[in-house]
Amino acid sequence: MESRMRTDGDKAEPSGYQRVVLKNAAPHQYLKVRLELEDESTRLSAVELKTFIIACLKGLHGEVGAALNVDVLKYDEETLSALLRVPSRGLVKLWSSLTLQGSYKNQTCAFRVLQVSPFLLALTGNSRDLRLD
User: Residue 36: which residues within 8 A CB-CB, separation 6 or more?
Assistant: First the structure.
């Protein structure tokens, strides 16, 4: 609870409000990512993508990173795009391990993080792709 500043001899009087700040109040973060591969004809199944994500986490953060609970909620095999869910405390670990990954089965690759939000509904649309006719 905040109080007004006091000078010598003054007593602190509590104010009529209480300031509450919630940091990372959302239990999960959602990421929309796309995997770009050197050979564009290469396709991964959802299981292969999840295995690759775990390998990325293990490569950068060890066994602790590999134990992070990452869920693939939606995956499009044609575009190699996925919607991932991760606990809020693990967002930085996941994001860093994906963006620092540079190869998949001896070919150059890159994860592109397209959108991040604590709300799943926010990832259903992208205002950058909106066309007003």
Answer: 80, 109, 110, 111, 112
Tens digits of per-residue pLDDT, 16-57? 777 766 665 789 999 999 999 999 899 999 999 999 999 999
Q: Which residues contact 64 (CB under 8 A, 6 or more apart)?
A: none
Domain borders along the chain are 28-121
Query: Edge to edge, what strands does the sheet with 71-76 contain?
Result: 71-76, 81-87, 28-37, 107-117, 103-104
Contact 86, 69 (CB under 8 A): yes
Whole-number Cα distances in Å, 78 to 29, 41, 81, 82, 102 = 24, 9, 8, 11, 21
The reply to whether the predicted model has a pTM over 0.85 is no
Could you say which DSSP state residue 51 is in?
A: H
Q: CA 33 → CA 29, 106, 109, distances in Å?
A: 13, 21, 13
Superfamily of domain 28-121: Ribonuclease P, Pop5 subunit (3.30.70.3250)
CB 108 within 8 A of CB 39: no
Distance of alpha carbon 70 from alpha carbon 10, whole angstroms = 54
